[in-house]
Amino acid sequence: TDPAVIRNFCIIAHIDHGKSTLADRMLQITGVVDDRSMRAQYLDRMDIERERGITIKSQAVRLPWKVGDTEYVLNMIDTPGHVDFTYEVSRSLQACEGAILLVDAAQGIEAQTLANLYLAMNADMTIIPVLNKIDLPAAQPEKYAAEIAHLIGCEPEDVLKVSGKTGVGVRELLDHVVASVPAPVGDAEAPARALIFDSVYDTYRGVITYVRVVDGHLGRRERILMMSTTAAHETLEIGVISPEPKIADRGLGVGEVGYLITGVKDVRQSRVGDTVTSVARPAAEALGGYEHPKPMVFSGLYPIDGDDYPELREALDKLQLNDAALVYEPETSAALGFGFRCGFLGLLHMEIVRERLEREFNLSLISTAPNVVYRVIMEDGKEVTVTNPSEFPTGKVDKVFEPVVKSTVLVPSEFIGAIMELCQNRRGNLQGMDYLSEDRVEIRYTMPLGEIIFDFFDQLKSRTRGYASLDYEPFGEQESELVKVDILLQGEAVDAFSAIVHKDKAYAYGVEMAKKLRELIPRQQFEVPIQAAIGARVIARENIRAIRKDVLAKCYGGDISRKRKLLEKQKEGKKRMKMVGRVEVPQEAFVAALSTE
Ligand code: GDP
Ligand code: MG
């Protein structure tokens, strides 16, 4: 294909502003999906994406579009909006020259709108501002067009207005993409260079690598080289997605977006951000890649049934083929037995990995409360990286560093006070505040990541009646006075319950945890004392009184089937229990720290 007729663009937006729905209309209007096969959020192919209504993986689709007599090729990339998947967005951007900045006409600009806009601006992309959902009665297109114009420095009239739902304005938008997004430029005669912007593992076909060709040409049955690993493979298949895979007999040329299959089984062999070149005529220099995402949040994953440990290991191995951002290593817990310490990009990523493990691999798991990574400097100068609170060194600690994020909150101005109080509470430092319009503000705080992962988002929402939106990015680390709080059951510290807490909050945390555990752990046939302690100092205690639990006592005589049901039910209830010493502890107890009131 002649690069002059190619337009590569992506859609960026805050979550739920309608990217996937707009992508649906584009699939339909360009005719690549017929009305009969159409279903909502067509490109969200994973079950979990469809159920939760969120996009996790980016998707690239090739769309034919005619303007006048010219047939253009549009490559559209749908991106995830959630903060955990920002790295997915940033890599999609590098495969495009233009970005549609989509804003819900009933909501206006939100935190991820800004975050994604800045990513696109830094990448020097052409930005097409678009208001979506103009069919909604609550839409205020004039108001928000002014907001967007103010933000990106254009005229309010330049903001296009569409409805991804009804299709209004979508044809005009595609025409506009052709007119305003620059055609890709590259050297067709140069050695091949293609950027890997995604790779996924398919059970039947192995790794499918998504690439954007920058220079030269990649063909079928060609020996190719991954420049960072120097691994060579042969392309078994090369093609484009439209929206199902279509083999491209002539391969992919300058500016084209497509996929290749080499039969490799491990996504790590096909690293996102790496450059693909040809063995016969390798490029001298790789394209600028992106940093590999670093895990920010850790948690322990344990099989409820210890016998499932080998299956859990296998499941993690397989899942990692698909999700290069997941890291894990074996760990042993005195309370929970053999399991893994896993690193995630954020809380949503964590939830999704866990859900996929349970659903796709049929495992029952216990997960411990998430924590961040601490860097501990000992008095003798030794440095320890702590990803598991129970391994926090005691004794001769000199300094402790914790990760910090720069967070941006967008709210109606009436909630400024509520936000400031919450952020201050979470050890935040006010960095600045800007009015986006008369009644909406952007508030910026730096804050320990450890404070954000404990229900910060829920608190934010509940204190602003759902109006606040949040985005954050890593912002180095800071030294803090942190201590380890242990929880003891029957006098024994339970490693899976340990948490690292700021010194000033340790007491309140201990009291709260002891109280919560008393409510969560069912009464047993013996008394269970619960204690919270810092080192040897006990800071809180509670008691679970003993009970003789006899469910059958409840049904007087007769009804056998009812008895059986009760027994079954009790068995069900036990599934999510883990024996810790002699005490039965439900899963919720291990993540009790996650909710504060
Ligand atoms: P994404 O998170 O940006 O991909 O958003 P989705 O495309 O999944 O849409 C989020 C919600 O908004 C869904 O319930 C859609 O049905 C709805 N939606 C999307 N576009 C429109 C639109 O133009 N009009 C209306 N009324 N609803 C829309
Ligand atoms: Mg989506």
TrEMBL record:
The Tr-type G domain covers 4-185
Keyword Transmembrane in record: no
Substrates-to-products reaction catalysed = GTP + H2O = GDP + phosphate + H(+)
Write down the superkingdom of origin. Answer: Bacteria
Q: Where in the cell is it found?
A: Cell membrane
Q: What CDD domains does this protein's entry cite?
A: EF4_II, EF4_III, LepA, lepA_C
Spell out the coiled coil positions from the record: none
Return the EC number.
3.6.5.n1
GO BP: any one term: positive regulation of translation
Q: What is its main location?
A: membrane
Supply the alphabetized keyword list: Cell membrane, GTP-binding, Hydrolase, Membrane, Nucleotide-binding, Protein biosynthesis
GO MF entry, a single one? ribosome binding
Per UniProt, what is the membrane topology?
Peripheral membrane protein
Q: Which InterPro entries match?
A: EF-4, EFG_III/V, EFG_V-like, G_TR_CS, LepA_C_sf, LepA_CTD, LepA_IV, P-loop_NTPase
Annotated residues for binding of GTP? 16-21, 132-135
* Function as written in the Swiss-Prot or TrEMBL entry: Required for accurate and efficient protein synthesis under certain stress conditions. May act as a fidelity factor of the translation reaction, by catalyzing a one-codon backward translocation of tRNAs on improperly translocated ribosomes. Back-translocation proceeds from a post-translocation (POST) complex to a pre-translocation (PRE) complex, thus giving elongation factor G a second chance to translocate the tRNAs correctly. Binds to ribosomes in a GTP-dependent manner.
The record's listing under HAMAP family reads: LepA
User: What's the protein called, per UniProt?
Assistant: Elongation factor 4
Upper taxonomic classification of the species? Answer: Bacteria, Bacillati, Actinomycetota, Actinomycetes, Streptosporangiales
